[in-house]
Automatic annotation (TrEMBL):
<keyword id="KW-0378">Hydrolase</keyword>
<dbReference type="InterPro" id="IPR026103">
    <property type="entry name" value="HARBI1_animal"/>
</dbReference>
<keyword id="KW-0479">Metal-binding</keyword>
<comment type="similarity">
    <text>Belongs to the HARBI1 family.</text>
</comment>
<dbReference type="GO" id="GO:0005634">
    <property type="term" value="C:nucleus"/>
</dbReference>
<dbReference type="InterPro" id="IPR045249">
    <property type="entry name" value="HARBI1-like"/>
</dbReference>
<keyword id="KW-0963">Cytoplasm</keyword>
<feature type="domain" description="DDE Tnp4">
    <location>
        <begin position="152"/>
        <end position="308"/>
    </location>
</feature>
<dbReference type="InterPro" id="IPR027806">
    <property type="entry name" value="HARBI1_dom"/>
</dbReference>
<comment type="function">
    <text>Transposase-derived protein that may have nuclease activity. Does not have transposase activity.</text>
</comment>
<dbReference type="GO" id="GO:0016787">
    <property type="term" value="F:hydrolase activity"/>
</dbReference>
<dbReference type="GO" id="GO:0004518">
    <property type="term" value="F:nuclease activity"/>
</dbReference>
<keyword id="KW-0539">Nucleus</keyword>
<dbReference type="Pfam" id="PF13359">
    <property type="entry name" value="DDE_Tnp_4"/>
</dbReference>
<keyword id="KW-0540">Nuclease</keyword>
<protein>
    <recommendedName>
        <fullName>Putative nuclease HARBI1</fullName>
    </recommendedName>
</protein>
<dbReference type="GO" id="GO:0005737">
    <property type="term" value="C:cytoplasm"/>
</dbReference>
């Protein structure tokens, strides 16, 4: 009898707390707060979030439950998580959210999956001639480097110890578990492609070789495209469609001028990653994602979509964030036949008589 009384008391207490959460959730209106406060919490403007909600609504299964969480609050809850990197329980305890941890978990999963569907609208590599020409013109206007259709780099996103037999594939050279995420951006720091499918142990060059953009550029080159290339650091192979810096060259030589312009042009990808992690803090090393590698990769993709949305709405850049491991380059000396001729042709054509 005493045990039954305790069980009934706990059930009544849980139901009472649930009603309180629902009441607080229903009367909250995050859109009524000042714009600056709204941006500091959700990292996007109110107009951007409203547009995002309408884009996501058709991608979410309709919920006919009487006390279903509105789509607006689902999106805002996920933005809180991605922007802060807090635990799900802490996100649910926020005075504007008022949800249990299981509810927050389900919401984040659904919204992240929907954002991954939106990737095709927000993240795409330039294929049309007008798009390619625009990217080239931006690199030329700001860095005077010809033919550039993007800058490439890898960044590590920390994850917890994965429960898999292949756990060793996620230990990076700093000895913590991570994903090695390939990102290509244009000069304005817009993300053109992202690949978060590889563990932290995988070298940047291998991630590159396994990417769709690598196959695409090879097909372009084979088809006769000879005036377009990415810019990568010395951790990538020198290819006719991937230019790397030329190291240990005489000062003030055309090769030195080439490398200086290369570094200046490629700085956009470093800024892109710094802005990405500065705005969406769940990607930072100290906020390791407590998910399987597959789910963590989808969260990375979702953050990249949100990054491009913030750029589209011209929101101010946050304080840039850089991981120490991203600043290190594991140099390689792999080159494809004919690539040195392409680089030397660029140097002789554009940097031979150029002043420093």
């Amino acid at each position: 009898m005493e045990h039954l009384i305790i069980v009934l008391f706990m059930q009544n207490r849980e139901n009472r707390m649930l009603r309180i959460r629902r009441h607080l959730r229903d009367i909250s209106d995050p859109f009524s707060m000042p714009e600056n406060e709204f941006r500091s919490i959700y990292r996007l403007s109110r107009e951007a979030v409203r547009t995002l909600i309408e884009d996501l609504r058709p991608l979410l299964l309709p919920n006919t439950r009487r006390h279903a969480v509105p789509v607006e609050l689902q999106v805002l809850t996920t933005l809180t998580f991605v922007a802060s990197g807090s635990y799900q329980k802490r996100v649910g305890q926020d005075y504007l959210t008022c949800m249990s941890q299981p509810t927050v978990s389900k919401i984040i999963r659904n919204i992240v999956n929907a954002l991954n569907i939106l990737m095709r609208d927000w993240i795409h590599f330039p294929i049309e001639e007008a798009e390619i020409q625009h990217v080239k013109e931006m690199f030329w206007a700001h860095a005077q480097f010809p033919g550039v259709i993007g800058a490439i780099d890898g960044t590590h996103v920390a994850i917890v110890l994965p429960n898999t037999e292949r756990e060793h594939l996620y230990i990076n050279r700093k000895l913590y578990h991570s994903l090695n995420v390939l990102i290509v951006s244009d000069y304005e720091a817009k993300i053109l492609t992202v690949n978060a499918a590889h563990g932290g142990r995988t070298h940047d060059a291998r991630v590159w070789r396994a990417s769709h953009v690598c196959n695409h550029l090879l097909e372009m080159y084979t088809a006769g495209q000879r005036d377009a290339w990415l810019l990568g650091d010395s951790g990538y192979p020198l290819l006719p469609y991937l230019m790397t810096p030329k190291l240990n060259v005489p000062q003030h030589s055309p090769s030195a001028k080439y490398t200086q312009c290369h570094v200046r042009a490629r700085s956009c990808i470093e800024r892109c990653i710094g802005v990405l992690k500065g705005r969406w803090r769940c990607l930072r090393k100290e906020r390791a994602l407590h998910y399987t590698p597959e789910v963590a990769a989808r969260i990375v993709n979702a953050a990249c979509v949100l990054h491009n949305i913030a750029l589209r709405w011209r929101l101010p850049e946050p304080e840039l964030y850089y991981d120490e491991i991203d600043q290190e380059v594991q140099r390689i000396n792999v080159a494809m036949e004919g690539e040195h001729e392409v680089r030397e042709r660029i140097i002789n054509t554009y940097f031979h008589n150029r002043p420093l």
